[in-house]
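Supplementary Text 2. Reproducibility record for the structural model of the 354-residue chain.

All settings were left at their defaults, and a single model was retained for analysis rather than an ensemble. We include the record here because the model underlies the residue-level annotations in Supplementary Table 4.
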Amino acid sequence: MSFFACIFDTMNIFTSKLLAWYAQYKRDLPWRHSNDPYIIWLSEVILQQTRMAQGLPYYERFLAQYPTVKDLANANEDEVLKLWQGLGYYSRARNLHKAAKEVANQQNGIFPNTYKKLIALPGVGPYTASAIASICFDAPTAVVDGNVYRVLARYFDVEIPINKPEGVRYFQELAQSLIDTKKPGIYNQAIMEFGALQCTPKQPLCTSCPIEENCQSRAKNTIGIRPQKIKAKAVKNRFFHYLVPFDSKQNTLLQRREGKDIWHGLYEFPLLEADCILTEKALKSHPDLPTWATTAKWTKFEDKVMTHKLSHQNLHTHFWILEEVEKSLPTPWSDVPNFGVPRLIERFLQKFNR
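Retained model, structure tokens:
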């Protein structure tokens, strides 16, 4: 047998065994009973960078509140961000809303049916476009997500880092070469499911793996270092001081975050940021201190610093309760739960009883 015939045979074995495994072990997930592109798109966007246990309730709530793409398009952004609250990566929610508007208003509620047109939608990248195109329209376009990277890097023992441009290209081409062109949607779901359940990041189930016999990383004992990644950029530490004010009517103040920083479009209490955690005395000299805060009664909510970790940032935070604010504030405290807030603020609100 020639070298190329051997490679082709290996790929055939990989694909056929993967499909057989999926038929036996796939999870019964709600979107797997549909090929409606709106449902598939919604599930893929919500579950990106999200664990299944966390993402599934969000999917169910979104579909219940917005059963069609036109319903989602007609919502306002604050409603969408509030429903998304706690999932993180809020740009996904904003792009979800933008794409829904485009499909509803410019395409009469009908999703594009090709990869090229799908990828032109706001927030839809190669992975999401491939998933929708293959599952809904039988297009032979391979998906590559974290699960797929891991399965392919281990099975073929690929050393190329997955977070370098050449690695992205290599794995996309490799994934494309393996796809079952007769059942592209099922194949894509199979390889992602295999990575999620069998070829897991830690403690993969190698002894019960149907493709273990041909897995090159298993043979070379390199499972633990595949896939390869170049070192991520350093984590940035930021120091937040939130002022939670109350006037004589027990109203407070929430402000919408703007600009290109984290949490764009969400609401927060007035924020003072510094290079370190500051004392009350130092905060009262902060250049951004609102004038109404100078005469208020200050109380630190907790002595312990609240730490909130993002992908490349650690936020070290204190909340200060400011009572007897002389200025009239706009937001009744009872209305605060109606605002979309970052998870950090949500954690504070869960602890703070008023």
